[in-house]
Amino acid sequence: MPDKHCDFKIDYTQLTIYHESGTTDVRYPLVVSVPHAGRHFPPEFLQNTRLSENQLRGNEDLFVDELVEPVANQGIPVLRMNIARSFIDVNRDKIELDAKMFYDYPEDKIAIENNRCRFGLGLIHRIDVENHLIYDGLLSYAEVQERIKNVYDVYHKRLQQLINKCYKKFGFCCVLDCHSMPSKICKIIPESPHIDFCLGDLFSQSCPSEYTAFLQNSLTGRGYTATANVPYSGAFTTFNYCQPRKKIYTLQMEINREIYAKEDKRQKSADFQKVMADTSGVIYEFAKKILDF
Asked: What is the spatial distance between Cα 198 and Cα 246, in angstroms, rounded to a whole number?
């Protein structure tokens, strides 16, 4: 990492942090979250990166927000992050920071935070999907704390509010955290050479097994291959919000980008509409079913 300092400030008054839909007339105890599909980059951030906007988009969950948006019309709350994942990753713990990315990182925090950062893709991404460095120098720790305050905390505060709203009305709630996965990841799993959907429930710890089984069977019934916990069992949202004893459950859904998009070109494929109809249809069926479990 170069010794150059990347000092810049973001005008957060110009940013709309999230988009929500289906939150007024909530009819089911299900909240759909989409933390990684944001496509807005603060201009100050772009001016201090080494990469183009197109390269930075490689870290996003391509079009997942559009795949699930139809369920909002059925009274299912959908919360979508607007800000790009390359700027801040709201599906990480706040302490997943890499001390080597900062010129003023507090020494007293290194032992707590530094070992939690995952391979350059922690709370603040150091690299893009092709392993290129994002920044042209070292960041300010204080500036990143502003990102947390003005973006990360705002998103999670609203997610918690929606969970509370469902819980108050129904006595229980499930968060379905929706993502996409690169096709190359799916192709290197020996025991399952092709995966269309992966459902992560922290190996049956974050929700009743009936939830995962129902979604898996519904997807299989529509002609897709669906696995449980392979290659992903869940991330921050999945384990941070699940409280099974209080009947607050979480489940992660990963969708293989290859089945609905041209990954390299970041374009929708001819199958996009079908996958959108199937994905949103399965989620709606799930929302109705969990009222009966």
From this structure: 26
The model's pLDDT over 258-267, given as tens digits with 9 standing for 90+, comes to 999 999 899 9
Cβ pair 291, 28 in contact under 8 A: yes
* Residue whose C-alpha is closest to residue 252's, from 197, 178, 159: 178
d(CA 290, CA 293): 5
Instruction: Kindly give the pairing relationship between strand 248-256 and strand 18-21.
Output: unpaired
Query: Is residue 96 in some structural domain?
Result: no
Question: Where do we find the tokens 């709201």?
Answer: 90
Give me the CATH number covering residue 228: 3.40.630.40
> In this structure, is residue 91 part of a structural domain?
no
Domain of residue 225, residue span: 9-47+61-86+150-289
Compute the distance between CA of residue 102 and CA of residue 107 in angstroms, rounded to an integer: 11
Q: How many CA atoms lie within 13 A of 56 on its CB side?
A: 26
In three-state secondary structure terms, 136 is: coil
Residue with tokens 């994942």: 85
**In terms of pTM, does the model score above 0.90?**
yes
**Any domain includes 279:** yes
Tell me the two tokens of residue 271.
Answer: 């199958």
d(CA 213, CA 199): 9
| Count of domains forming the chain | 1
- Regions in the chain scoring below 70 on pLDDT: 1-2, 110-118, 186-193
Cβ atoms of 97 and 117 within 8 Å: the answer is yes
pLDDT tens, 143-171? 999 999 999 999 999 999 999 999 999 99
The chain-wide mean pLDDT, for the chain, equals 93
User: How far apart are the C-alpha atoms of 76 and 21, rounded to whole Å?
Assistant: 8
pLDDT score for 1: 46
Distance from C-alpha of 15 to C-alpha of 139, rounded to nearest angstrom: 21
